[in-house]
Amino acid sequence: MLVCLLEAHEHMILTCKEAIHVAGKGGDEATEDMLTERVEVHGKTAWMLRATLEK
């Protein structure tokens, strides 16, 4: 179950990064900022899940 959760967070990171690129091309800085924050949250959660799985 934790592996599936980790994969979902990693998928969200990739999706958000793609959306950041699109928002940047469109000049939408507010959306870029919001998505950057989401990447940070999902990245931290993914890191914690990886650490848990390594135990």
Give a written overview of the molecule.
The chain has helices at residues 2-25, 29-54. The two termini are 15 Å apart. The radius of gyration is 13 Å and the shape is elongated. It is mostly helical and 55 residues long. The model has no long low-confidence stretch (mean pLDDT 97). It is 91% helix and 0% strand. It contains two helices and no strands.
Q: Which residue ranges are poorly predicted, with pLDDT under 50 across at least 5 consecutive positions?
A: none
Largest sheet: none
Radius of gyration: 13 Å
**Would you tell me the structural class of the helices and strands?**
mainly alpha
Give helix and strand order, one letter per element, not per position. Answer: HH
Mean pLDDT: 97
Note the total helix count: 2
**Shape category:** elongated
Number of strands: 0
User: Level of helix content?
Assistant: over 70%
Assess the beta-strand content as a share of residues: under 5%
Q: State the end-to-end distance.
A: 15 Å
Secondary-structure topology with pairs:
Elements: H1 2-25, H2 29-54
Helix pairs in contact: 1-2
